[in-house]
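Sample intake sheet
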Amino acid sequence: MLASSAHAQTLARLHIHAFELSSDKTAVKIGEPFHLTLDVHLDERVASLDNVQLPSLAGFEDLGDERRCTIAPIGTDCVETLTIDALVPGDRTIGPATIEFVDGATSRARSRESNLVTVHVSGTAKVAADSNDASDANDVRQPLWDLLWAGVRGILIFALVAVALWALLWGYGRRPRVAAPAPPAPPPSDPPAPAEVAWEQRLRELGAALASEPTRERAVAVRAEIRAHIGASERETLADLTRRNAAAGDTHVMAALVAVERAAFCEDADVADAAREAVPFLTT
C-alpha cells in the first residue's frame, strides 16, 4: 500500500469527461494509411497529458504520432493522432488506450480505459520489398555454393583421415613397452542445480492466488511482482514502461500488468470484479 501511495503522488489530479478512441476508416487495404485518434477532455488546464498508454498496434505499422493539447473555454482538449497501416488482413480490434490519474472527484488514483475500435483489413499480408529479389538471387547462387562446398568438404575429410592415420602409426611406433598408469578418476560432478520455475508458471500461480483472494491487497502484491520482473522503478508509470519497451515486446506481460493495475486502483466496490477480470490475463 505504501508503494501505491507513492505512485499515486506522481499522478496528476484530473476531472476527465471524455477518453475516446476512434478511426477515420472502418475498412482499409493492406498498406493503406489511416488515422487512429484518441480524444480527451478534462476540466483542468494543462500543457500536456502524461501517463497515457496507447493501445497495442500488433498487426499494424506505426507511421507517425502527433500530440497536441488546446486550452478550451472550460478545461483542455487533448488529441493524439497516430498514422498507421495494416500488415495482415482480417478484422482487427485496436484498444483500449489507458490513462492513470488521481480522480478529482474521489481523490483516489485510478486507471481509465477507452473504447475499442475494429477495422476490417483486406488484401495480402505485407512482405519486405526486397524479399523476392533476394530469393531469386539465392536460387541462382545456391547450386554453385553447394557444388563448391561439396568439393571443399571432400578435401577436408581426406586431409583429416590422412592426418589421423599418420598420427596413429607414429604413436604406435613410439609407444612405451611398460603399461601406462591408469589416469586418475575424475572428481565427482556437482549435482545439477534445480531448474528455476519458468516465469509463465509463476504468472499462472499469481493468477490462481488472485482468483482465490480477489482483494486490493492481493492485486497490489501481484502488480509489484510483475513490475519487479520487468525491472520497473518505483516512479515509472505504464506509459514509461511502454515507451522503453520494459517487457521486451512481451505483450502478454504488459496486458496482465494493465489488468492488475485496474484492480489495484479502482473504486472499492469494483475491486473484486476487476480482480476476477484480471485473472485470465495471468493464467492464459
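Comment: Residues 131-173 form the longest helix (43 residues). Residues 64 and 99 are 21 Å apart (CA to CA).
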